[in-house]
Design a protein that fits this description.
With 242 residues, this protein is an alpha+beta fold. The protein is 38% helix and 21% strand. The C terminus is likely disordered.
Length: 242
């Protein structure tokens, strides 16, 4: 219990140090710690409940009729998302990083502040627009003709959201998660990473860290060597290294 209390205090201090749109409601925010694959609990409020990713990553996904998962949205540190009770019951929102910390904001409290504070209302609209823009970017990524285009665009988008000063991107997703996000097979994702390494576009440091060497190669969509069918979703015959 003491360890959890210390962890909650630690992430609350992290939240206090970050500048974000709902800063004025931080004192009322609830800190939530989730393990990988743990669902974000649904609040009983009738209004949307807002969440802010302090650390880790969260996915919103649906299960298709053929049993395959489709990731509809990916939330990283600094992103907001919201969940509405009794809607989209076929969707799940869950952590995809081993250690994920969220700040949870009462939807009713958010609406009340927005009604009496015009500046906060504008900030809230900007958050909503950012959410829409994030989903639009994903649609453009998965709309790529070739799988290697999808992976290249995904890495560029991820770098724009979470890369460090050295151009390194720590992947919050496994290769299986990336496959579900891009609607391709996991074997295709692995081949694309190898393809991009061979072309000098990226280097890998361990399983989850990518350094982008040549962004032009990732942006070059017409001359890329195919690394597998973009529509391939076959079940892998072996479990590749993740």
């Amino acid at each position: 219990m003491k360890a959890k209390t210390r962890a909650l205090d630690y992430y609350r201090r992290m939240l206090a140090a970050q500048n974000h749109a709902m800063k004025r409601l931080d004192e009322h925010a609830k800190i939530m710690l989730l393990a990988r694959s743990q669902e974000v609990p649904v609040n009983s409020e009738l209004t949307a409940h807002w969440y802010y990713v302090i650390l880790g990553a969260v996915r919103r996904s649906a299960i298709r009729s053929d049993g395959r998962r489709q990731i509809l949205d990916l939330m990283l540190p600094g992103d907001f998302f919201f969940v509405v009770v009794d809607r989209n019951e076929d969707l799940t929102v869950e952590a995809i990083a081993e250690e994920t910390a969220l700040a949870s904001y009462s939807g009713q409290r958010v609406e009340q502040l927005a009604q009496r504070d015009a500046e906060f209302a504008r900030e809230l609209r900007n958050v909503a627009f950012q959410n829409l823009s994030r989903i639009q970017d994903q649609l453009l990524i998965i709309g790529g003709v070739r799988a290697v285009e999808k992976v290249g665009s995904f890495l560029l988008a991820l770098a724009s959201r979470s890369s460090n000063d050295k151009g390194q991107v720590v992947l919050p997703l496994t290769r299986y998660d990336i496959a579900e996000y891009l609607s391709v097979s996991v074997e295709t994702v692995c081949r694309c990473f190898t393809n991009l390494q061979q072309r000098g576009a990226i280097t890998l440091s361990g399983k989850r860290t990518v350094r982008i060497i040549d962004r032009n190669v990732l942006r070059r969509r017409t001359n890329m060597i195919p690394c597998g069918s973009a529509a391939s979703n076959s079940v892998p015959t072996h479990r590749p290294e993740l």
